[in-house]
Amino acid sequence: MLQLALIGLLGGLITGISPCILPVLPVIFLSGGAQGARQRTGSKAPAAKDNPDGGSGLRAHSTAAAGSPGSSAGTAAVERGSVATQKEATAVGTPSDRAQRRAAGWRPYLVILGLVISFSTFTLAGSFLLTLLNLPQDLLRWIGLTVLVLIGLGLIFDRFQHILEKPFSWIPQKQVGTENGGLVLGLALGVVYVPCAGPVLAAIAVAGATGQVGPETIVLTLTFAVGAAIPLLVFALAGRRVAERVKAFRRNQRKIRITGGIMMIALAIGLVFNLPQLLQKLVPDYTSTLQEQVQDNESVKKALDLGGLVNDQNRDLDKCSNGAAELESCGTAPDLKGIQEWFNTPGNQPVNLKDLKGKVVLVDFWAYSCINCQRSIPHLTDWYGAYKDAGLEVIGVHSPEYAFEKEVRNVVSGAQGLGITYPVAIDNNLSTWTNYRNRYWPAHYLIDSEGTVRHIKFGEGGYQTTERLIRELLKQADPSVELPEPVEASDDGPVAGATTPETYLGVTKKVNYAGSEPYKAGVGTYTVPASQPADSFALAGGWDIGTQSITPTGAGSSITLNYHAKQVYIVVSGEGSLDVVRDGKATPVAVSGTPTLYKIADDPDIRTGQLEVRVPQGIQAYSFTFG
Question: DSSP states of 556-606 as a string?
């Protein structure tokens, strides 16, 4: 149980710092943090010497009240008492003021607590409860979005806030929707919060969808939610701290309320139209390396196999390794079972794998709101368009992470938006997902023309490898088939007569590195080896290695590239000028703006050569491609 708790906490922490949290951060910062700022007092309480009676202003006031009317001593005492009372009231406030400050101080914690409670509850039991009550599966999400809009309106318009409070007028504390509504806000955010998929979340979703919820699953869910919430809490507390320390925030509390309300409404509208996914697509998944380390750990895999997924149909799937460079043999493909309905098929009729013998089949497990899936699907649609006439069939098995993803109309709309025209199966009960022992979004299972699983890839990436293996299987199925040019920029490995494969420089997709130093994320110093292999690159000087790109840390940083191609291109961004040295001659290449392809070598025919690309500070390098 302790191991599961640690796995859940780690998985949640990785999710909590991933690009998935970006859409909710403005709301957390402003309405969860800045709005919870504790107001500073106006002045210190008066000292005893300020009062002739040696007591507090309140005591002087009592003395005056005891004096006779019109008494000069009594009047003076009253005046002194009134002044002192005002000072003390400024310092400590009325009991109501003090209670309000205490409530504001708790607001960040209440927002995050509400998020943890609702996310955990609805992830595990939301779908079951909605099915039991025969209600739409996306009802909870629409309720959450509506609550966000109502709270936002209450923050912007005082009159609307009073309307919100009227139904609760019988409660002594009536401010439930805005000022002291941190818990309500957190509950609403927890319903609409859609974290990135990973092995921990997959195990939780499978348990919730299949009704296999026990103590272990509850512990895993709670610790995952807490782990994901910790970075959000830090952000909320940072917002509160900024609001307390920066005068501009203290002077503009009303404006902060309004801005927070606008951000809530904007978040709700954005979620309706899936706008946050557009932002997330543009942001590299800088947590992918951490996620891969978790999902590839054997202890984690064993601990997360909560449902006992192994059966006679899928027991050989573990003979395939994740993302293998060559074809493997992993048993007969399990059945597509428990499918609720199909679309993008003739008459929306079901597809049976046994009827596809003779074709190469790629089964893709996806969910329409999963950002990882959204980034991978363009590759699948391109493969389907290029190879369907040559014998490739792609089947998208939609396996929902959340209850609202079970609504078929939402899936159809999501598929249309992503350009999916291949058959899609609605696997709302995760029956096929379970039959494939799957734990990941996305996950690709490549099946040959005889019905045997030959390749498995979990998560994003490996697209060149997958396409190359698709082409191999299509040739095996029909040696006479004419295949078009590869869809991806190049293959993953050198082929006789072909150009150097596309070379990525980020640590998560690094290929063809030939240096002697470990190629790992962070700042390091590199040297070019005395003998560098063909079709490889090496670094010299100081570099900061990132997930998607590399950046020089000082002068004298360069990339030495051995290549076999007609044209060489480099993808870089920033401001400055590269020096490309070939055959002892340096050629400047001006760089400006966002990541763009620059041609750095162009010959009449394919040739073998070497380039030294000198990269100054201020420029980021992403990859080399060849033509």
Answer: T-EEEEEEEEEEEEEEEEEEEEEEEEETTEEEEEEEEEEEEEEEEEEEEEE
Taking the C-alpha atoms of residue 252 and residue 243, their distance in angstroms, rounded to an integer, is 10
pLDDT digits (tens, 9 = 90+) for 502-514: 787 887 666 788 8
What are the tens digits of pLDDT across the range 565-607? 888 888 888 899 999 999 889 999 999 876 667 889 888 888 8
Helix (H, G, I), strand (E, B) or coil at 343: strand
Outline where DSSP puts E strands in 260-354: 341-343
Q: How many other CB atoms are found less than 10 A from the CB of residue 252? A: 14
Residue 387 or residue 508, greater confidence:
387
238-249 average pLDDT score: 80
Q: Which two tokens stand for residue 52?
A: 């002739």
Instruction: Give the 3-state secondary structure percentages of the chain, helix then strand then coil, rounded to 5.
Output: 50, 20, 35
From the CB of residue 96, how many other CB atoms can be counted at a distance below 10 Å?
8
Summarize pLDDT for 311-337 with one digit per residue, the tens.
788 888 888 888 888 999 999 999 998
* Closest C-alpha among 459, 524, 508 to residue 623: 508
Residue 431, phi then psi, degrees to nearest 5? -70, -50
**What is the secondary structure of 252-264 as a DSSP string?**
THHHHHHHHHHHH
Token look-up 């909605």 returns 130
Block residue for tokens 């420029």 = 619
Distance CA 288, CA 191 (A): 25
Q: Using a pLDDT cut of 90, give the percent of the chain over it.
A: 23
Helices 2-16 and 199-210, axial angle in degrees (round to 10): 110
Q: Per-residue DSSP letters for 498-553?
A: PPPPPEE-STTS--SB--SS---SEEEEE---SSPPSSEEEEEEEEEE-SS-EEE-
Query: Residue 29: which of 172, 211, 234, 280 has the closest Cα?
Result: 234
H or E, element range at 326: none
Non-local (6+) Cβ contacts of 542 within 8 A are: 523, 524, 525, 526, 552, 553, 554, 556, 557
Output the average pLDDT for the chain: 76
Question: Side-chain half-sphere of 539: how many Cα atoms within 13 Å?
Answer: 25
Q: Exposed, middle or buried: residue 399 (CB in 10 Å: 0-12, 13-18, 19+)?
A: buried
User: Quick check: 323 and 416 in contact, CB under 8 A?
Assistant: no
The predicted pLDDT at position 166 comes to 58
pTM for the model stands at 0.47
